[in-house]
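User: Okay, second chain of the day. Same drill as before: sequence in, C-alpha cells out.
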Amino acid sequence: MSRSVKKGPFIERKLYQRVLAMAGQSSKQMLRTYSRTSTIIPEMVGLTISVYNGKAWIPVFVTENLVGHKLGEFAPTRVFRGHAGSDRKAVRR
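Assistant: Same drill. C-alpha cells below.
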C-alpha cells in the first residue's frame, strides 16, 4: 500500500539535511545511508548515494528517472543463484 499523498514522501531527516548540504557543494562525495525506506526526491538528482544492503554498500547514482522510487529498490538484499536442477544432461530418445 502506498503512502498518503497528504503526508508527502518519507525521507529520513538526517539524510535530507545531508542532501541539502551536498547540493550546495560542487564536490562529488558519496553519501552513505542505512535508510532503504527513504524516497528519492528531486534534490538528490546528480548525487551518488551508497545504500547498505546488509552486507555491502551499493552505490546508486540518482537520475531523474529514479525520483519517486525508494533507495532500497536499487540495493538488492538477496542473491539469486538459479533454480536447483539435475547436473546430468538431457537424454535424447
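Residues 13-24 form the longest helix (12 residues).

User: Thanks, on to the next one.
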